[in-house]
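Q: I'm teaching a short session on how sequence maps to structure, and I want students to see two examples side by side rather than one. Could you give me a first protein with its sequence written out and its structure tokens following it? Keep the formatting plain so it prints cleanly on a handout.
A: Of course. Example one:
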Amino acid sequence: MPAKDADYDYDLFTIGAGSGGVRASRVAAAYGARVAVTEEYRVGGTCVIRGCVPKKMLVYAAHFAEDLEDARHFGWEVGEPKFDWKTLRDNVLGDVDRLNGLYTQTLDNNKVEIFHQRATITGPHEITLANGEKKTAKHILIATGARPHVPECPGHTHGITSNEAFHLDAIPKRVLIAGAGYIANEFAGIFHQFGAHVTLINRSDQILRGYDESVRDRLLQISLAKGMEFRFNANFEKIVKQEDGSLVVHMSNHEPIEVDLVLFATGRVPNIEGLGLEDVGVKLNAKGAIAVDENARTSVPSIYAVGDVTDRVQLTPVAIREGQAFADRVFGGKEASVDYSCIASAVFSHPPLAGVGLTEAQATEQFGTCKVYTSDFRSMKNVLAQRNERSLYKMICHAETDKVLGIHMIGADTPELIQVAAIAVKAGLTKADFDATVAVHPTMSEELVLMK
């Protein structure tokens, strides 16, 4: 247990009570540290309050649209389905309230003091709260996360971000989504399944940059077949609100489009404004994020940062790992670090896709050549439901050693499958190890050990 420093009010003062900040604070407190957290909004952070958790609930709801349609092929008579957005919205927000309470309870149980207000760093060991009160701490941890980026163009205030999407009064009939990353494609699937006509625009000619080309191309094909529209090489010029409340979006290289809602999903930027970083000498990197070393320490030795505010890997589990490692090192006396290699990720699009390790392009660039195995199939469920939607599994292997370098998938339940597949890739297994594993039949996952 670390010795408490009487020169300071706290051993640790954390700014931001999201996934990374909460984990670091409660672990540090468990080691015996005196810890305080300040949070201007709600305890839980982006993921729990206005991100992956409520979004996943909307994804579950969206899947019922096709499930109910398919049910008749499986002998079920379900009548005419009726969807009520407000019921879903309120139930989701109610669960967010529950989670907010649980995260707050976790901090309380670990005797972490919570301040519900903004804070500014006014010295290497000093924090000034919004009410003017000053606090001192031996260590300061910045875990303020990131926020949605909003493009600068005339009329941009008429659009919303994913933050506001969870609070809509109704599902719009026509939705334009700006961006082609995971948030854009996830909300495209959600709004489409809820009955909206969806158009995605993107400034480049690709979706889901960074994912394997085969699986993202398959998602594009499926999305187009479902009736979604895509406009590529399109930059915002202006958004004009009409008298009836509809919006006319003007963009480069395409004709204007009239919609009822514009959702910006054009990336996220670190929350650094108003923290006083420049006054205490905390340096930023080229992306405008807080620069940290391998131990999450900033250019000021007493100040650390974890999570999206550092813009290393913007994933909730990564922020949690960083918060844990920070607390273990600084307050637990352990040699703890975060391994950023081979991190699996998923896109909860419709259908979802997931991947871990190197893409085919990355493997070719790194090793010159590689072996590629695939399974392109229609699931049993889609066969009986008379849906032509096909899944695609892909395995990238080293040409000489046969080591599995990456696995990439699109189809039902692939986010669940990739977690187990990631263990195999991280462990350095070979294609022969997969081939030697007896399949579980009949499943979709058996294709992982049957790829040719």
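Q: Perfect. Now a second example for contrast.
A: Example two:
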Amino acid sequence: MDSLITAAGLALAAGDPLGALDRVALREDAPALALRGIAMAQLGDLDRAKLLLRRAVRGFSPKEPVARARCIVAEAEIALVSRDLGWPAKTLDAARATLEKHGDRLNAAHAGHLEVRRLLLIGRLDEAEDVLAGLDPAPLPPASRAAHELAVAGIAMRRLKTRAARTALEWARHAARRAGIAGLMAEVDSAFLALDTPAARLIANGEERPLLLEEVEALQASPALVVDTFRYVVRSGETAISLATRPVLFALARTLAEAWPGDVSRKELVARAFGGKNADESHRARLRVEIGRLRAELGTLAEIGATKRGFALAPRQARVAVVLARPIEERHAAVLALLADGEAWSSSALALALATGQRSVQRALEQLAVSGKVQSFGHGRARRWMTPPVAGFTTTLLLPAPWLNG
């Protein structure tokens, strides 16, 4: 490898894409094309970067599998940044296997971290943990060690393990400072900010207040009766009852918990659960049926008693009943939550992350665009959607990752 290629590679490793381009910008050989592609990616020109990397892959001979694999890993990182979550994971797995086979453990680990980040975005925590468990951070250089600890922290935050998340982020900050890469240090600082920004709302005794991630973790571990609007469950301690497939019952449970220790009128319950403006006799009859079903579901956690004007919730063992609510509650809050990371998403990537149909996501985006909450650029398959971050809230708890249910 010639000295210019070596110098350009070192410049990229230090986070200096302009320095790398100074050395190889006019060269058309495969190693130079690969380095130019990575440099353009660092500068934000992702389309140009992809073209350069693909030209580099074609330029390397079949006898250079490691160089080809490195280009594939770089292209996978561009796909992740541009939220192309449908990028073939098997291609990345094959590249990672090639790198491991030929002893390039550093780039193999980088490929593993990319896969972890992709799995986190689509809410597959168990799979992300399995991949991360197979990566040994000890021999990694500072920049790669920071990426590893960021992945550890990302999983811990979604598992509501804030102490573990803070520890991982401290290691990440230390490693990022040793690496001296400004962008990496900014990413660590942003992750720390998520721990110190309200992640949910607590509704109790007719009042509400914001909760930090640590406070949400403490609430989940408390004996309180919690109506959880993130996962549509009612829980107390180790017992959790899912109402995810019973939206009417969940609406009733939430309304009763918001009013605890008071009661709720039949008219309000009908309006919240059925959308009816007037509680006529048919609505009252249906309400009695649904309240009976809710009593049966919550039998081990709470009783629902009739009052003169309606119904009241009475926890059996918990001292209080509260509602854990999303920071933002509107029809398409989940779509907004993903877009709030400031990146440009395709509708197909959003559908994959939300585990829903692409057409449903497209309708949601169109409605949000009409109200000015999102904006798009590009056309056809290249169309991307984005929105500025929601000020004052972290999106961690809005992501579609499952929580542990005791």
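Q: What should students look for in example two?
A: Point them to this: The mean pLDDT is 86. Also worth mentioning: Residues 162-179 form the longest helix (18 residues).
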